[in-house]
């Protein structure tokens, strides 16, 4: 029976004036429920609220998904972690842009209020130290415009875990821009890389240990010409020739299964040019220098081993004044502090694990007699050279570098004669057991403009 039929049956059986409740359809609610639903204001309000809630949720979800979809379609992101070289390049690039003005600026910068300072600190063997600061974008969001495109930079720091090797927190940089500008990421990163390289090209980069890793210290330095370090005849050439021969024999070492490493010891009195020569040689071979201070606090055997096995490519490891570091096999610094590097740990680190990686170590000392023979044995030190106080011909060459060809009132022949006089003086003093360091001579020539005066007053320099 359909509902219309039922309706007609019900109506026909009732008295004509009595209003009859109308029941529609076989599944219709009983009348008490209809009354409850229809009349109960609480239910109506609750239903309305629920409907609104559901509607809002659907809308919100929709908006969220819409935003995500829109973001996917319209935005691109690029992620860099601080394990990657690009991370440092990009931060340096950002810092560089912030300093630029007008035409030289590749990106217009929205001044960031959230900066981080990066400090590099170097303690030199003469006790002096220096620090270099760089202000970079700190954690948080930063915005800039690069070639007409807006970009967001988000720097995030992971607070719950740190890198096992360096002890530094993990960091991520996320660059976001519009999809259509995705190609700009490439340009931007190339620019950041070129900036980093341009800073280093033709320069000497000195790295220092930073926790468990090597980091460039300060700005790359101008290379010092090898010829500007005046050593006794043939000495510099001998080391240079040896290093070049070593570098050309990688395959030879590999074929014989010999660890590809070479150790040099430059010994001699202070101020004779040991450090200057190593730096100049590194520069001439386009190598960097990794400066390792054995007396550094916090340096222990395992850390030393790690640092020595993980140097940046093409770099010399330089350890200065090794005699002071290991006096009587106990490592002490001037203030009596004993670092945790043991002598055997040091020897192990020098021997290293057999690896195909090339390693060139330079050690310097003012007192070779204080060194333990175990340190100087071949394999650890393959070539040991004396870099001495000024020999007569060295003094003459240094004198000529300062005074020959300069615009002074003294005729050239007289300058030559003065040079010979100085050389003779150095020889006479040498025979009498008195010497002068090249550093002292250099300082004297810098202070004295007149060559005649320089020779006359040089007597006081001998010790
Ligand atoms: P060392 O490492 O032997 O103590 P350095 O290389 O630190 O000596 O030299 C100290 C200073 O003296 C530097 O400024 C360097 O230019 C100068 N000097 C020392 N020896 C020489 C040399 N043989 N030729 C030119 N300059 C020298």
UniProtKB/TrEMBL annotation:
It catalyses: ATP + H2O = ADP + phosphate + H(+). Pfam families: AAA, AAA_lid_BCS1, BCS1_N. Keywords: ATP-binding, Hydrolase, Membrane, Mitochondrion, Mitochondrion inner membrane, Nucleotide-binding, Transmembrane, Transmembrane helix. SUPFAM superfamilies: P-loop containing nucleoside triphosphate hydrolases (SSF52540). Residues 50-229 form the BCS1 N-terminal domain. PROSITE patterns: AAA (PS00674). One of its GO terms (molecular function) is ATP binding. It is found in: Mitochondrion inner membrane. It is a single-pass membrane protein. Its main location: mitochondrion. Residues 260-391 form the AAA+ ATPase domain. It comes from the Eukaryota. The keyword Transmembrane applies. Belongs to the AAA ATPase family. BCS1 subfamily. This is Mitochondrial chaperone BCS1. It comes from Coprinellus micaceus (Glistening ink-cap mushroom).
């Amino acid at each position: 029976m359909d509902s219309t039929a039922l309706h007609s049956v019900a109506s026909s059986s009732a008295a004509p004036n009595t209003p009859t409740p109308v029941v529609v359809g076989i599944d219709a609610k009983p009348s008490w429920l209809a009354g409850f639903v229809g009349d109960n204001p609480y239910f109506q309000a609750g239903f309305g609220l629920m409907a609104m809630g559901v509607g809002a949720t659907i809308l919100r979800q929709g908006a969220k998904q819409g935003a995500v979809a829109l973001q996917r379609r319209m935005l691109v992101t690029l992620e860099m972690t601080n394990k990657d070289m690009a991370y440092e390049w990009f931060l340096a690039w950002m810092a560089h842009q912030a300093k630029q003005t007008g035409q030289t600026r590749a990106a217009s910068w929205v001044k960031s209020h959230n900066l981080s300072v990066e400090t590099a600190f170097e303690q030199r063997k003469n006790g002096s130290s220096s620090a270099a600061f760089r202000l970079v974008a700190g954690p948080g969001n930063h915005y800039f415009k690069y070639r007409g495109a807006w970009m967001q930079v988000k720097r995030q720091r992971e607070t719950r875990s740190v890198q096992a090797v360096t002890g530094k927190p993990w960091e991520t940089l996320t660059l976001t821009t519009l999809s259509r500008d995705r190609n700009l990421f490439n340009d931007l990163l190339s620019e950041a890389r070129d900036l980093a390289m341009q800073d280093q090209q033709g320069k000497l980069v000195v790295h220092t240990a930073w926790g468990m890793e090597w980091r460039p210290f300060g700005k790359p330095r101008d290379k010092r010409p090898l010829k500007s370090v005046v050593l006794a005849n043939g000495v510099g050439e001998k080391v240079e020739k040896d290093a070049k021969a070593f570098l050309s024999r990688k395959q030879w070492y590999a074929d014989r299964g010999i660890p590809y490493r070479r150790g040099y010891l430059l010994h001699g009195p202070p101020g004779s040019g040991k450090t200057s020569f190593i730096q100049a040689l590194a520069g001439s071979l386009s190598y960097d220098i990794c400066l390792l201070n054995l007396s550094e606090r916090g340096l222990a055997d395992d850390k030393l081993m790690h640092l020595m096995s993980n140097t940046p490519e093409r770099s010399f490891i330089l350890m200065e004044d090794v005699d002071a570091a290991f006096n009587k096999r106990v490592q002490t610094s001037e203030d009596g502090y004993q670092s945790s590097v043991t002598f055997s740990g040091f020897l192990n680190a020098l021997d290293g694990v057999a690896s195909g990686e090339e390693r060139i170590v330079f050690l310097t000392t003012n007192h070779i007699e204080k060194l333990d023979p175990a340190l100087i044995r071949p394999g650890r030190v393959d070539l040991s050279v004396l870099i001495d106080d000024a020999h007569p011909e060295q003094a003459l060459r240094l004198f000529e570098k300062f005074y020959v060809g300069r615009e002074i009132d003294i005729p050239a022949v007289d300058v030559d004669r003065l040079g010979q006089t100085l050389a003779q003086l150095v020889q006479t003093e040498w025979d009498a057991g008195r010497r002068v360091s090249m550093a002292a001579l250099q300082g004297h020539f810098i202070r004295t403009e007149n060559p005649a005066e320089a020779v006359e007053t040089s007597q006081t320099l001998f010790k």
